[in-house]
Design brief:
Blueprint lengths: L8 H9 L2 H9 L2 E15 L21 E14 L8 E15 L22 E13 L2 E8 L2 E2 L2 E2 L9 E9 L5 E12 L11 E2 L10 E10 L2 E10 L3 E13 L5 E14 L9 E13 L2 E11 L7 E3 L2 E2 L19 E10 L8 E11 L9 H4 L12 E11 L9 E11 L8 E13 L1
Antiparallel strand pairs: 1-2, 1-23, 2-3, 3-4, 4-5, 5-8, 6-7, 8-9, 9-11, 10-17, 11-12, 12-13, 13-14, 14-15, 15-16, 16-19, 17-18, 19-20, 20-21, 21-22, 22-23
């Protein structure tokens, strides 16, 4: 288990508890949250594909296991202090995370739930880490230094597996103006979702071998007349500048229980600095319009990548960060070079039918016009070059059934069954798979 050492932390603790009056806000506004997460992951590789992870990597293709299957339990404890009653207020954030193996096998590993040896597939029985950060507040501005969980469109730690990834650096958040939140940060180290490594670089989602020493961003969100506008600019050092513009709103119609929902998320990546990984020029446009009819919501989305490189975003070694593009699904992201995709989605709240807390989501996505044959970027084309004469298409169907216990001793227990099916033209980057995830989350607050 990794231990976190922060030189300024003893000084902050001394400042906090130097006098009882200074400690009042620190203690009274403190909280401790504990998330229990139980995660079963099963991915079946279809139509001749197989699991290449773990012990399978040393075997011929016809002797490899045809699926991945692992089960684990995670605990994430987070302490968030209040602030001291001083001119420059001081606070501390700390966390401890542990992942426990419940089931795994050397040939069935690779789900990113459990830390494992990439050559042998041998998995650890347990892994974890502790970390923390010091925060300083003046009026409505907070500066935080240390291990953090950033969540903005250009950098959002991955939360799609057992434990979240983390980033180390300094961030600033300002809420001095009504309806406006400004965020800025510089991160120079990260921790993946499935190991205790603290790495001095960031990767990217496309897994093309890109590594950058740091990531910095500036941006924010502003709410005006029920519309939230968001804009960010970031730099993945010597790789690209990434820009984001998005907006979302809900418009209630005159008829009770009817509403329109709209969201758009748009990115632009362009090579910068030393251009260590070549020329990059990719624009990602996405929008979704939904119609809410009481407890039913019907949505239609469209996404298009403009450019001969795929749309890519920051990653944490084995996983990409969470992304805001609207057609990123459970398995595929529909973000290949020049790709167009549509999404049809249906959400249902079953509470009116006597089952409070039960919900259903179903969606279908289809992608086409994939073509990177004109790309001059060797970093991306060394992984995949699509034949210009082949009409590459793919589709994904996702179904999620969720139940959140509304009352009683288990109140807050969140149970999700997520199923995904993906099929594609032969030669497309993603495999044909059938996938099932069973996730139980039970949060506790103290």
């Amino acid at each position: 288990m990794k231990k976190f050492n922060l030189a300024l932390l003893p000084l902050s603790v001394f400042a906090v508890f130097s006098t009882p009056s200074h400690a009042n806000g620190f203690v009274e506004d403190s909280r401790f949250d504990l998330m229990n997460r139980n995660f079963y992951f099963y991915r079946d590789f279809r139509h001749g594909a197989s699991n290449s992870a773990g012990a399978n990597s040393t075997l011929p293709a016809d002797e490899r296991e045809g699926y991945r299957s692992e089960w684990a339990h995670g605990l994430v404890g987070q302490f968030t202090s209040g602030f001291t009653n001083t001119p420059i207020q001081v606070g501390v954030d700390a966390y401890a995370m542990v992942g426990l193996k419940l089931y795994s096998d050397e040939k069935k590993t690779g789900t990113n739930l459990i830390e494992f040896d990439p050559r042998t597939g041998k998995t650890e029985d347990a892994y974890g880490e502790i970390g923390g950060a010091i925060k300083l507040k003046y009026n409505d501005t907070v500066v935080t230094y240390g291990n953090q969980f950033p969540n903005v469109p250009v950098m959002a730690v991955s939360t799609v597996r057992l434990l979240p990834s983390t980033a180390t650096g300094v961030s600033l958040q300002d809420k001095s103006f009504d309806n406006l939140t400004i965020n800025a940060a510089h991160f120079y180290r990260m921790n993946p979702v499935d190991s205790t490594e603290h790495l001095n670089y960031f990767t990217t989602d496309y897994a093309a071998g890109i590594q950058a020493n740091s990531l910095s961003y500036l941006g924010g969100s502003y709410k005006y007349n029920d519309v939230t506008y968001t804009a960010y600019a970031s730099e993945l050092e010597d790789v690209w500048n990434q820009y984001f513009i998005g907006a979302n709103t809900t418009y209630k119609l005159p008829t009770e229980g009817h509403a329109l929902r709209f969201a758009t998320a748009n990115y632009y990546n362009h090579d910068s600095g030393d251009k260590s990984y070549g020329d990059i020029d990719a624009l990602a446009l996405s929008a979704m319009l939904g119609y809410q009819l009481h407890n039913h919501t019907f949505s239609l989305g469209y996404q298009q990548i403009v450019g001969d490189e795929p749309f890519d975003w920051v990653g944490f070694k084995t996983m990409g960060a969470n992304t805001s593009i609207l057609n990123a699904a459970q398995f595929a992201t529909f973000s290949e070079a020049n790709e167009k995709s549509v999404q049809v989605k249906y959400d249902l709240d079953l509470s009116p039918y006597g089952v409070q807390g039960l919900s259903l989501m179903a969606r279908y996505l289809y992608g086409w016009d994939i073509d990177n044959s004109d790309s001059k970027n060797a970093t991306y084309t060394k992984r995949y070059v699509y034949d210009k004469n082949t009409d590459y298409t793919h589709w994904e169907r996702d179904i999620t059934l969720g139940y959140k216990v509304p009352t009683g001793f288990a109140k807050g227990l969140d149970i999700k069954l997520r199923q995904a099916t993906h099929r594609a033209t032969k030669g497309y980057r993603y495999n044909d798979i059938d996938e099932l995830r069973v996730i139980l989350e039970y949060p506790l607050s103290f």
